Fold:
Amino acid sequence: MSDSSNNPPGQNTQWGGRFSEATDAFVQVFTASVDFDQKMAEQDINGSIAHASMLAEVGVLTGEEKTAIIEGLEAIRQEIRNGEFPWSVALEDVHMNIEARLTQRIGVTGKKLHTGRSRNDQVATDIRLYLRDAIDGILAQLTRLQAGLVELAQREADTIMPGFTHLQTAQPVTFGHHMLAWNEMLQRDYERLVDCRKRVNRMPLGSAALAGTTYPIDRSITARLLGFDSLCENSLDGVSDRDFAIEFCAAAALCMTHLSRFSEELVLWASAQFDFVDLPDRFCTGSSIMPQKKNPDVPELVRGKTGRVNGHLISLLTLMKGQCLAYNKDNQEDKEPLFDTVETLFNCLRAYADMMPALEVKADRMREAARRGFSTATDLADYLVKKGVPFRDSHEVVGKAVAFGLQQGRDLAELSLAELQQFSAQIGDDVFLVLTLEGSVNARDHRGGTAPGQVRAAAQRARDLLSARS
Ligand code: ARG
Structure:
């Protein structure tokens, strides 16, 4: 490395000027972040190219200097992509590794790149660029998964299953309706991430170390080159707060929580006891000891991974809460939780988007379960209300009819008219229209209800929302 200073041997070439001894070997490793922040190398290079271009435009660098810097950085980008870049822990982080390498490659001009900026605004810019790309990738996976769910909902709009409260059979619903409930949750997750992206996409570059810089920078140039929507308006805030990352982790934790709930249902539904669905073999694994086993690993793992994402949210909140303005080294600890959140959420969404269209729906089994669970008891109560019985009384009457059915081992629809009339003289033979599963779901025929026609219309609206996404 070209080092014209008289630094102590082994001292950092980027900031060693005021030091009289080299960094302790363990401290060097302890304080380094290059092992994980090299993930932001592309963003770091893009940020540096924009910064150098802006410096040339305002006359701080010459056109030749700018060109040499950009060519050098592009060559470094190739080295990194080819896995040939000599990463060094002694150079602490991705920023100093790349800058030092630039100077090594292009000579003294490389040392001018850092004019008018600091690693503090550099790293804040890199994370935002990284997270912006990450959000876009996640949104694409969310869209794939939602499209699969809406498709499934459309296909299974007439398929009847028991709906549950307290995991006890409550009322019949359609499987399509259930899938659209999942889609609603994901739709909100999508909206949250789109909203969060607006606050991620603001540029801290130009904040320099904390107070701004004495050079005649033009931040609007760098913002335009890097595709930022706007600028961080205060330099102290720009280098310091990581609320955009916390906000992303909160949205990610919610999305994972939704996926975890879906997972819990799939695990139950795939069990021999429920047997509502079959997960394709390629999404399951076997047991090394029990030959009969087919385990729903993907949903289980997604449910499990929700724990670490929720944990990362707490890590970042806790990381931030004690920090005075402006930048503190604490913030180096933002990266691992953030990166892991991004990767975990992306992978879970991808696995789900691949898996859902291949789900085998066992309509007969679901129908049977709905039929056995007195799921139309509320329909009988509503029927009596429509005949003039006050709701509390009709509730009581139907409770007694259910108790009788339980004793007999028969569902309400399997009782004879005479048997039903023991409980209320208001019951006529039109009662069987409401006691059937179809009658029950068809009767919930309003926006947001489970009637197959409503499910088809809701699926169409969901599909329209998906196709309106750019
Ligand atoms: N690696 C550091 C981080 O991730 C870069 C910023 C360091 N700034 C400093 N003044 N030491 O936050």
Observations:
- The chain is about 60% helix and 5% strand.
